[in-house]
Amino acid sequence: MKTCPLCSTSWPGHHTSCPTDGATLIDSRELDPGTIIRGKYRIQRLLGRGGMGAVYLAEHILLARPRALKFISGSLTQDPAFLRRFRREALAAIELRHPNVVEVVDLDQAEDGSPYIAMEFVDGPDLRHALVANDFPPRAFSIARGIAQGLAAAHAKGIVHRDVKPENILLANPDTPAETPKLLDFGIAAVHETLTAVSRTHGLMLTPPYASPEQWRGLPADQLDGRADLYALGGVLYEMLTGQTPFHAHNSEGWMYQHLHEEPQPPSHLRPELANWRGLDALVLRLLAKDRELRPRDAAEMTVLLDDIYFDPHPSVPESPAYEFKPEPSQAPVGSEPMLFTNYAQQDRSRRLPRWLWVAGAAVVIAAAVGVWFILGSAQPHAVTVAQPAASQTTSADSPDTAATEQKAEALFKQKSYSKARPLFQAACNGNELNACSYLGYLYSEGLGGPKNLQAAREAYQKACDGGPQSSCYSLASLYVNAGDKAQARKYFQKACLAKVADSCDLLNGLQ
Question: N or C: more exposed end of the chain, with fewer CB within 10 A?
Answer without folding.
Answer: C
